[in-house]
Amino acid sequence: MPIASNASQVFASSFRALGNALGTARRGCALIFWTVTGLLAFAARNAANARQAYRKPSKVIAAEELVLFARRAGGAWAKILQILSTRRDVVSEDAAAILATVTQQVGGREPPNVHRRIADHLQFRGVDVQHLSIQPIASGSIAFVYKITAAGLDFPLALKLRRPGIIRTLARDFALLGHAANLLRRFPALAHLPLPAMARSFSETIERQSDFSLEAAYIARFGDKFARSNCRIARVIPALSSEDMLFMAFEEERFEIDSVTPRFGIGAYQNLVRCVYEMIFVHGLFHCDVHPGNVFFDARGNALFLDLGIVKEITEDEREDLADFFLCIALNRGKRAADTLLAKATTIPPGIDRAQFRREIADVVRRSSGLKAGQFSAVSFVVQLFDVMRSHGIVGTADFIWMIAVLVTLEGPVKAAYPDLDFQRIAVDVITASRGVPVE
Ligand SMILES: Nc1ncnc2c1ncn2[C@@H]1O[C@H](COP(=O)(O)OP(=O)(O)O)[C@@H](O)[C@H]1O
Ligand SMILES: [Mg+2]
Questions:
Q1: Is the shortest distance between the CB of 289 and ligand 1 below 6 Å?
Q2: 1 pLDDT exceeds 60?
């Protein structure tokens, strides 16, 4: 290769790297600015509020400021709020309702000339676009969603149109997340958490969410696996879809899973939990973002999974490990749980007291084993596990992080609707049925 062309390639790639670094730094500065102004606004409003006769709870003011922050920042930040909104038990009922507004309406600028673009796209793909109607439905963290009807369509469609610039924004957020993880790891209190590995896993998985051809492929695979069950998956129209436009059948009847006065009986919630467990423990291919903006009930109370952007696929061994670990909790096998944690740990200091570690983990497991949804808390269980690990200097695995994320998100709506739901028992049933033999 000529030297001049080599030099120009080196120059181009250094120029790109510099552009990326500058973009990430600018995003970092913007995030810091919004955080500081948000905190100041919160402090000022909270102080003014203290002098009012009717006082808004501080959590509500904080939720309002967080929503403002998520609408400005978009990207990964809206997603964090969507997850937080499922935890009425943590953030309070009123604050959760405010946070939940970001599950459907993140806001932000629509791509230019949407109507023209959609009409041209459909026409190019052979659809008769007479009487075309394009109705905005939602603005999610990744996409704007429209309901589309036209003379040439047999049924209404949902179009997910990717937000302009979202791929770049996510890449920058994850670069920042990676730096933050490396920094936080230096604090002794956090040294035992596999933070960089967690950040890497989040980045890889969520970044894939912006590629709609991948999402369409996942939807097709889920559709095959769950074709004959009470778990319904969005129906994609591949002939119309592209990398940044995902066309699906429009699901007119979709009902909230997150409701204090549930529309459906406990059976619908048991089925929802069973669907999620089958994804994790049987297929090793699971929806990782089960918040109420992505998962619904249909009119018959079947679980309806719409947004399959964040999906995790694990190996057979990882699937077996997850299933085993969950059984350890449900069946109160604390010492075996401790052995799994040791076997999967990334760092074990020499000379640790294994017997003591097993006893302490067994205690944590005993306190949670057999609890119904209302009493169990995935967050506090995980915090207790990590506490024991930290006290022994053990750095844990990042492999369980997605299952924990799913449990933490699903737990809120299930708890609020049916605190008596025995979600540990359902896991045992699903795993037993898939193994074909009773669990020993
Ligand atoms: N197939 C569909 N039918 C009806 N509504 C849909 C469909 N897909 C998405 N929506 C609506 O759009 C919202 C946002 O869609 P989603 O796929 O979650 O976008 P994002 O990836 O940006 O989070 C959903 O909460 C739902 O209300
Ligand atoms: Mg979504």
A1: no
A2: no
